[in-house]
Design a protein that fits this description.
Blueprint lengths: L1 H15 L15 E3 L7 E4 L25 H8 L5 H6 L28 E10 L7 E11 L4 E5 L6 H9 L6 E9 L11 E4 L11 H12 L4 H14 L21 H13 L5 E4 L8 H16 L3 E6 L4 H4 L4 E6 L2 E7 H10 L10 H9 L2 H8 L17 H13 L2 H15 L13 H18 L1 H21 L10 H18 L4 H16 L5 H31 L5 H29 L2 H17 L13 E2 L2 E2 H4 L1 H14 L3 E4 L3 E4 H5 L11 H46 L1
Parallel strand pairs: 5-9, 5-10, 7-8, 8-9, 12-13
Antiparallel strand pairs: 1-2, 3-4, 3-6, 10-11, 14-15
């Protein structure tokens, strides 16, 4: 026993001078010190880094009234007691694990962040199910988080981790109802804009932008002030998240160049929230879909961020031993019940006291989840006849339901739970400094930023408009060669009508190629709107203004080729009307695609719906059967009048044939209206083509107005419901 103790002391002395978690002793040198006469109860987990359990103090910058703590917070933190469980583990204090310098180098200096304390008392969250607010997802949770620390919410699938995190951040879906109290700097005031950041489990990034460009545009959308100030904030965020080596690299890659890996992408999504310099940062599953190396790098980076003063609260499903050692406090949940809250090392002692000691050479997080995850009961039932070398299949010799009840009862009666209540009382005894809003960028600024960003993205993303331009040119060349050499005789009228119909209908149908890009834009907007970085109006206006140059380029290039190959009337004013009419047709089609994509949010169903809508509009456009002969219900009213194909084709044919005269024999002639009357229904009024143009313009804005209503009044509910559904699906799959 003395030999084991001496070797563990040697490991402690060696780990205290380690420069980073990666320089620790190999896993084969990890030891546990056990009580004399006890074979399975660990007392000290030597694999964890050495921590300083002395008083937790929060220091704020001079004049840090934006988010600094008041006297009550400093008084409470100055008297923070050492966890009762930790006091039983080691008599001496343990040094904090070293992390990289905040600046990333001697020449780089990153400003400190004024953090804020957060505490929650008797927090209960219910979800609206079959019975109104019947399902309790989180049950009477208590806890707190200090500036400069990392507090992790851990538990198995469907334990309420993400729900608790959203409740603390004030981002619960409409189907949830919260009871209890959440205090920020000792007061129950709502956290204003810019005082906190929230990073979803999966965030949408713009792959055609570099890391620096993406963060810079995010800063322009979020922050008021001058451009030079925002550049400095962006550089600070890049340094804080260790992204200097990737700052000028495209997020999604280009051609044969690979984009960022999942670990770097995750850090970029966190850096986007850091440009606001939030006092509290909430992160849902920062290690989601990361390998062990990326996970360790992520947590070391977050530890560095916490050392700058930021308050970090995040959820995690499972972690390695090295990652677990970087946590300051852990909130362990199972089925919404809090099984433990306190220092990470004290959690090991808590499990040992409850009769579930952590086996040697096993990761603490694996042991915790093994004990409280009910899914393991099914595995044990399948493998009940199997025996391992030690004679036991599992270190936990009872089912998880009993383990959960035992751990919960042990925690409620422990000194750790009492110390948590004492600390919450001290943090909420007096109100500290109120967090203040940092201001937003103006609406005009956001529109300008989104317009310029859309132009940049559309010019770089070849699948957005360049692919459609190529398809339009191929289609136009095919139609032009098919209908070339028609002449201007009376016998070519029907064929010319078919050419115009095929050009407008098929070109609109090919616009479906832009559905994936529009869906990505809507997802990016949803991600930015959830954090109040953007709004429905500025998004639609920026997207509309950004798409105009590309749509006009497609319209003028396709119209010129079609116009001259088919041989329409040689008049410049008529040519310009043809170009403008087709441009309006593309604007309407773009609005229709936005409308369908906003409803479905899925490539398959959006594409299927758009094809069906276009086919119905083509049938009602009056080419296959003149509109006067269409059945009145449904086909004439409303299909023929809501089909933009009808107004576009009618305007183009009026532009071509009104004012034209065709000779019939040697002495008789008929007007263009009379010549086309048997093939397509148009108006004899010369101003009718401009009315059709106005109808197309009204439809272009009408579709976008509907999209605005859907995004403005329906997005929050849809996003919340989808996030909740995705959360449950991910948990069930895991």
């Amino acid at each position: 026993m003395e030999e084991i103790q001496s070797q563990s002391d040697l490991y402690r002395s060696s780990s205290s001078c380690a420069s980073s978690p990666t320089s620790r002793v190999p896993s084969s040198h990890f030891f546990y010190v056990k009580k004399p006469g006890s074979l399975r109860q660990p007392i000290s987990f030597e694999d964890s880094p050495e921590w300083d359990d002395t008083d937790v103090r929060m220091e704020y910058e001079a004049g840090g009234g934006n988010g600094g703590g008041g006297d009550s917070i400093n008084d409470a933190s100055a008297t923070t007691p050492i966890s009762p469980s930790l006091s039983k583990i080691n008599s001496g204090s343990m040094a904090s694990p070293p992390v990289p310098e905040a600046g990333g180098g001697a020449g780089n200096v990153v400003r400190k962040i004024a953090g804020a304390s957060i505490a929650w008392r008797d927090l209960t969250v219910t979800m609206k199910g079959k019975r109104k607010y019947s399902d309790k997802v989180v049950k009477s949770s208590n806890g707190y988080a200090f500036p400069g620390t990392m507090t992790v919410i851990m538990g198995p699938a469907k334990s309420g981790k993400s729900t608790l995190l959203r409740a603390l951040a004030g981002r619960l879906p409409p189907s949830a109802k919260m009871y209890g109290e959440v205090f920020v700097n000792g007061s129950k005031s709502h956290m204003p804009y810019g005082s906190y950041g929230y990073v979803e489990r999966e965030t949408e990034l713009i792959g055609s932008l570099t890391v620096r460009e993406f963060l810079y545009y995010s800063a322009l959308l979020q922050l008021p002030g001058f451009l030079c100030q925002k550049r400095g904030v962006v550089e600070d965020a890049i340094q804080a998240m260790s992204l200097s080596d990737y700052a000028n690299k495209l997020i999604g890659g280009h051609c044969y160049m690979k984009g960022l890996r999942s670990g770097e992408r995750r850090r970029v999504s966190i850096a986007r929230e850091l440009v606001m310099r939030p006092h509290i940062l909430f992160i849902d599953e920062p290690l989601y879909h990361l390998d062990s190396v990326s996970a360790l790098l992520m947590m070391v980076t977050l530890k560095k961020l916490a050392s700058m003063g930021c308050t970090l609260v995040f959820t995690i499903y499972q972690s390695s031993t090295e990652v677990f050692g970087l946590f300051d406090r852990i909130c362990l949940l199972s089925n919404g019940n809090t099984l433990f809250f306190g220092e990470t090392l004290a959690c090991l002692q808590h499990f040992s006291n409850a009769g579930f000691p952590c086996p040697i050479m096993q990761s603490p997080s694996d042991h915790f989840l093994r004990a409280i995850n009910t899914d393991f009961d099914r595995i044990i039932a399948m493998c009940k006849n199997w025996q391992d070398d030690n004679g036991d299949f599992s270190a936990v010799n009872m089912d998880t339901a009993v383990a959960i009840r035992t751990l919960e009862a042990t925690y409620k009666s422990s000194e750790d739970a009492a110390s948590v209540e004492t600390m919450i009382f001290k943090l909420t005894e007096r109100e500290g400094t109120q967090l203040k809003s940092k201001g937003k960028a103006g609406a005009a600024t956001r529109v300008a930023v989104l317009t310029w960003r859309s132009l940049l993205v559309m010019s770089r993303e070849w699948k957005y408009y360049w692919l459609r331009l190529i398809l339009y040119m191929i289609l136009t060349l095919c139609i032009g060669t098919l209908y070339s050499g028609l002449g201007h005789s009376l016998s070519s009228v029907a064929t010319r009508v078919s050419a115009v119909f095929v050009f407008v209908s098929f070109a609109s149908l090919l616009g479906i190629a832009g559905i994936p890009s529009l869906l990505k834009e809507i997802k990016i907007f949803g991600s930015e709107a959830s954090n109040q970085h953007s709004g429905a109006f500025v998004f639609l206006l920026g997207q509309f203004l950004g798409s105009i140059p590309f749509l006009f380029l497609m319209s003028i290039s396709s119209s010129l080729v079609f116009y001259f190959m088919v041989g329409l009337r040689d008049d410049f004013s008529l040519l310009m009307y043809f170009v403008l009419n087709f441009f309006m047709c593309l604007l309407v089609n773009e609005g229709l695609m936005l409308f369908i994509a906003c409803i479905w949010r899925d490539v398959y169903w959006s594409t299927l719906s758009l094809i069906s809508v276009h086919v119905i509009m083509m049938l009602a456009a009056g080419h296959f059967r003149i509109r006067n002969a269409l059945p009145k219900p449904v086909w004439t009213y409303p299909l023929a009048y809501i089909s933009f194909h009808t107004y576009s084709i009618e305007g183009l044919l009026e532009n071509e044939y009104l004012g034209e005269v065709f000779a019939v024999g040697e002495v008789r002639s008929i007007s263009g209206y009379e010549a086309i009357r048997g093939d397509y229904q148009i108006s004899p009024d010369t101003g009718s083509k401009w009315r059709n143009m106005l109808v197309l313009l009204a439809m272009a804005f009408g579709y976008r107005l509907i999209v605005y209503v859907l995004l403005r009044f329906g997005l929050n509910k849809n996003v919340s419901a989808r996030l909740l559904l995705c959360h449950r699906d991910n948990n069930s799959s895991r």
